[in-house]
Amino acid sequence: MYKEGLSEITVILPAFNQELEIGTVVLIAKRYAERIIVVNNCSSDQCSEVAEAAGAEVIQGFSGTNKNLSLRKGVEAAKGADILVTMDMDVCRDPRLIPEMIKPIREGNFDLTVGTCIGRHKRNHESVHLIKNKKTEERPVGFLAISKACLEELDLSDVYLNSIRSIMSICERKKINAYHIDLQEEHEKNLFKAYKIGVVVPAYNEELLIQETIEGIPDYIDKIYVINDSSSDRTGEIIDRMTDPRLVPIHHKVNKGVGAAIINGYKYALADEMDMVAVMAGDNQMDPSQLPRLLFPIIEGKADYTKGNRLLSKEMRKGMSTWRAFGNGLLTLITKVGSGYWHITDPQNGYTVISREALEDIDLDSVYTYYGYCNDLLIKLNALGLQTIDVAMPARYGREKSTIKYSAYIIKVAPMIFRGFLWRLKMKYMILDFHPLVLFYILSMVLVPVGFLFGLWIFLQKIVLHGSVSANYPLLDVFISLMGMQLLLFAMFFDMQVNKTTSLNYAKPN
Predict the structure, then answer these.
(1) How far is Cα 117 from Cα 139, in angstroms, rounded to an integer?
(2) Cα separation, 345 vs 334, whole angstroms
């Protein structure tokens, strides 16, 4: 075991385009460390300047975002520190956890400590990786604290610093006394206590699962708005019997629909000035451990609305029937066109978080009250130019089974999405701004049906009625149809370009 006098603490922070957060992180870290080194990985923003202004030493890292190489470069620059602390800001941005990380080393009990926190998400358009978080060892590393003597003994070139398995394996081989600290609970507490967060729980005949759902909501939530939508079972009675002080029971005398229930919950949350409001259905199908991943993008100012996505891989869809996945896929296609959020998938996923600012901008009374409220909400968010992010997460099914019949559902919701689509075109491209794509859409909606009906008439005249038709008519029909399709494709292309930055995919669920 390495024991020596410990005084100087150095913190290494790899950074890439994090000018919004780096200043605050450096200032807080300076409370606990004598030296802060920021390894700037060729950021295109003002990350270096902000870090220097906050009092950090800045060294240039590598092109791209290879955190392992950046950490090693930071370690080389930090030689001589009695305790070296590395902090991965993509996993944890709370330097207030540093004292807990260095305590085992200061007390002389351990040579190295590894801290795992809430896994944050990285944007990834090319691939999706599902991290099976069944073992603590597989969780992302947020902090690493190493004593000076241990650092001299440990060859970091052999260690994958972002993997707790790699770190612990090397320490075991070299007989280094290492200690793992699970920081998730404290990280959540520290991170979210600065915000007022509410959860809306719509419930209709959920007597079996409503209590389990409410009891599973994390402690950092300030208010739980449970809407009993005129249930005919004991749901209302169970809600009233619960003693959680955060609980706000709301009872509808008549069934208004899940959309109306959620909107009512939103209104209560606005009245209580919640900063963010999540939706977690009363059937306990929404995993509370995934909630931080929906909150992070809004806290970081990257999104106004976040939603779950269960369709990005077969593993994530586990438990979802083939018919349900097909229906969800069809609704995804319809909603992409209708809402303008072309990167968004799984629009029926009701596990969402919305910012107070977004709620204040939306006309809540105009939101669809049936199950299609989530599609309608996306349309309204897009029309107002608000940022939406998809957060990949696995499906969670238990005792509760969905009662949605997708054939009837699509027939009912599709016309609403089409009306919303027309409203979005008018609002976004004619009233709030102007773009010629609206003309392309309008012309295509005229020419495509005309081409189809004209072709059908030609077919009936020649094949069914055996009449004569001008030889020019088929050519004219082809011209009309092709022109209509071309205008439609142009309109969709321009719509995608306009909305390119309003929706993102976030992968790597825990």
Answers:
(1) 8
(2) 11
